[in-house]
Amino acid sequence: MAKPTDLVQGTLDLLILKTLAHQPMHGWGIAQRIRQVSKEALQVNQGALYPALHRLEQQGWIRAKWGESENNRRAKYYSLTPDGAKYLRQEQAQWKRLSLAINLVLEAS
Amino acid sequence: MRWYYKLPLRLRSLFCKNQVELDLSEELKFHLQSQIDEFVRQGMNSQEARRAALQALGGVEQVKEECREARKMNLIENSVRDLRLGLRMLRRNPGFTVLVILCLTLGIGANAAVFSWVEGILLRPYPLVAHQEQLVALSGTVGEEREQTSWPDLLDVKRSCALCKTVFVSSITGATLSIGERAEVVTGSMASANYFDGIEVHPILGRGFEPSEDTGSRGHPVVVISYHLWQTRFQGDPKIIGKTQRLDNVVYTIIGVTPEGFYGTFVGRVIEFWVPVSMLEVLNGGSFKLEDRGARWAEAFVRLKPSVTRNQAQQEISAIAARLAVEYPDTNRGRGIKVWPLWNTPFNHARELLPIFEIMVVVTMFVLLIVCANVGNLLLVRSFARRHEMTVRVAMGADRCRLLRQLLTEGLLLSACGAAGGMLVAYWCRHGLVLFFPGDMLYLPGQIDGRVLGLSAALCLVVTLAIGLVPAFQTRHLALADTLKTEASSVMGARGRAWFRSSLVVLQVTLSFILLVGATLLMQSLRKIRTTSPGFTTTRVFDTWIPFVAAGYDASRAKTFQDELIQRVRALLGVEAAAYARVVPLGYQMFSSTPIAVDGYEPQPNEQPTADYNEVSPGYFATLGIPLISGREFSRADDENAPRVAIVNQTMVARYWRGQNPIGQRLQVKGNWARVVAVVKDSKYYSMGETARPFFYVPLRQYFAIEPDIHIRTTQPLQTIQAALLREVRALDPNLPLFEMITLQEQVDRSTSQQLVAVALVALFGGLALLLASIGLYGVMSYTVSQSTRELGLRMALGAGTSNVLRLVLSRGLLLTTTGILLGIALALLLTRLLGNLLYQVSPRDPLAFAAAFAVMTLASLAACFLPAWRATRTDPMRALRAE
């Protein structure tokens, strides 16, 4: 079995924002969800996750709030701010253009 | 509006640090717990699960630190923490801290003081004067020599110079001001009518001069007074304008008061009053000069148009001067006009201070470098003591950048304290330069303005980098495991880390050696100057003068009085001779100067021979003890009605008569022919350091000056002769005062004060540097010894005697010194040329000075090494070996 692909630098932010677009979530949950949705293909480096979350919070894309987790523990829930949502749309569009372009290059004989 | 989210976060990180930290811990704890649960579900036992979870996260502390980093607040937060940590470190070692701050205060303070002097005296010398960078000084030139300029020439320059905004005159003068009972000589200036417009300083009361007021002869007795004079002598009288005041014996109308803090435009003096140049003859005597192109008396400034450079202006003005030389060959042939930057103004004290400042800048920079090296060494010693702390911090996850920042913060704290102390020192010293010129009543203010502060701050930053990076350089080699395990002890003379400290010491030795050489050279030169004969007797000849003009004497009354007085003085007990002369040698007053012609001497096409001369009375040479080589002194018969005569010096004979006997030959002085009646030996005229120059004397009676100095040669002490002279003066006219009486030796000493300042400063800093370097050497040697206890113990256990150990340590210290001295010799050979004009009959490469500096340096370093070496011999082999 191939090793799960390491995340490309910078795409982690995009994945976090996308994950949070559905619902507020804590760090652990974000990592789990990314893994599940990508069918185990993407393994979030846990050491990089939290600094990324803090950076995004500082930039004002997401905000944090303490809440109860599923198993009744105190957890820090992150949610998307309106600015973050706008930023996500931009970045998503950007990503699509980029991957399309890369595909075009790769599939050209 | 993202700031809406950001701002509270930032404030929170800054002010609720503990809460933020707690949140971070809890967040990670939740994560770990979830991960452990997950692993347990997959079948691990709880121990394994915990370890695996920690591994997956990659170290809680590291993640925390990265999160902190992600919160940008880190920069400020860290700085605050660094600052706090730094303060704590400095408080823990008060002795060390005080020593370092004192060193830095000294280094930065010396530099800041010199900056403030350079700024206040050379670069922006004239407070309140606008745009001083556009001002240049103007002088005439004859070949290489400088001279004043004539009024008609200046008017021509003003009219035809397109690059000059304006040309204005301010020539220094003095007058006796008597108000009520008190009379004093005050310094003033003869100014052109456009003076106040030219410098853009406007009277706070009344007006400046009208354009017509600098024309005509004696036509406009008006005066503008300084704020200081207004306050002190006129009690700030608000109705002062329009009142009258006598200066000397002429009544002037006060038309204006200058603003507070304006001191005129003469480096070294405070100007108290300004009169228009039309009053020139009244103040300085002589004939009407405003229409005389040959009368050169004016000290002028030019304000250049914006963005015109000095070179451009010089080209244009040179062209004008060349045109004048063609148009008026009688007066202007071979003469030029030159512009000077303010800091090199030829007619005030700026020029004579310039070489001192050059030396001071270099010397204080050296001191700062030595201080940096010394402080760097101290910090280095401490950084060894702190190696353990540093290593622990690296192991705990601090990256090297943070360590570096911490060290730099400590350096900054130290140098900021040093800079603050330095600014205090500079502030206290800002008027201190004057102390070096006793009896001269100079005004030499330092100025601490934005530029001085900026330079000092820059210096502080450079120092911070220098002293902060030194220990940082060491942490580069921090090997975690080694250092944590044990403090490895080093070996005597081992290479490695020690080389850095050693090179700092070598640097100190080098620099202080150079300063020592400089100090020795200057001292030798001063001794030579002080022991050189000026060519006249100095110890038993006294000098003073009587202000006849102020007392309302005209020329004929003064002549009568002077004749009677000299008879009475010669009859006094102990008086051997007495005479008058217009100018006292080595004084500030200029000798008269004239174009000359000599029978049988053909000048070169572009040469206009000139010479300076003094107007002296009969008995002058006997009084001053200047030997006559041939011929006779002036006699009473050489008066207004007799044929004109002159006495020339040897250099003049050599140059214009090619060594032939000139007695009976003719010499043209100011257009009149005079017969040479004697030849006298050369003496010093303007300064002790000057080379022999052509000079001659004329009878005072034939070229009368109303206020000559009186020279008296006597066996009596100063007080006696002064009292006796005053008695005789009062007997003739009870209203006449007498000025301060000094010996000619005093005059010589005053004239060599420049050399004295240089010697004092360089010797002071040289001594200081020597002390610092010795401390540095002592520090390195002590440290080396303390680090090699084991080796020394081993050597002694194996039979090395006291002398062996002593030799081992001393030779290592002397190796450093010798290296430093060798470098110092090489650099000093290049640098002592800077002393240039200050050295009198001493070569800048004088071997004696180098040898003396070598001896002093070697002795000092031997002394510095001896204590550590002696301590090394006290090493107890048993204890040293057991300690391992």
UniProtKB/TrEMBL annotation, chain A:
Domain annotation Transcription regulator PadR N-terminal: ranges: 16-89
Alphabetical list of Gene3D superfamilies matching this protein: Winged helix-like DNA-binding domain superfamily/Winged helix DNA-binding domain (1.10.10.10)
Any Pfam family: PadR
Superkingdom as given in the UniProt entry: Bacteria
NCBIfam families xrefs: padR_acidobact
Protein name per Swiss-Prot or TrEMBL: PadR family transcriptional regulator
Organism: Candidatus Acidiferrum panamense
